[in-house]
Amino acid sequence: MWEKICDVIGKPEWKTDPDYATPPARLPRLRKIFDTIEKWTMTKTKFEVMNMCNPLDIPVGPILSMKEIAEEASLRHSGTVVEVDHPTRGKYLTVGNPVKMSDSVTEVRRSPLLGEHTDEVLRNELGYSESEVADIKASGAVTAPQKGARAEAA
Q: What is the average pLDDT value for the chain, to the nearest integer?
């Protein structure tokens, strides 16, 4: 694809120049090549560069800003970016599950608050009784749920 790159960046003479025509000849000149490509890209938007290079099979893609990622509808539609509701933080965007399987749909949920599931784990997972849970809490061995955490059913 070297010839295509030379043409698109306005350096067609590099295709036949002995200092640039082969990979070994280009190696000591990589800094100059990268600087030239960078100067060329700075005259265009990232999407213009992508639209010029991709039809020529020069693989490029835009590096999106956080704002662009948040506003890109296709990322929301595909589940690459999802909105999560948090009890103390409010709604925020986060990365969706990168693995998509038609028979194993996943839901991205917020992380629990500190101590939010303590009662549930002590009772249901570890088998402690209500009085044992109360004793454990009274001893200070577990952290009380943070403000904003849902109250556990007694």
A: 90
CA atoms within 13 A on the CB side of 134: 4
β-bridge mates for residue 91, sequence order:
85
The partner residues of 90 in beta bridges, in order of sequence, read 86
Tens of pLDDT, residues 64-80: 898 998 898 999 998 89
Region at 41 (left for phi over 0; alpha for psi -120 to 50; beta for the rest): alpha
Name residue 49's amino acid: V
Q: Spell out the domains of the chain, with CATH numbers in brackets.
A: 2-56 (3.30.1540.10), 64-111 (no CATH), 112-146 (no CATH)
Instruction: Give me the amino acid identity at 142.
Output: V
Return contacts of 33-36, CB within 8 angstroms, 24+ apart. 36/9, 36/11
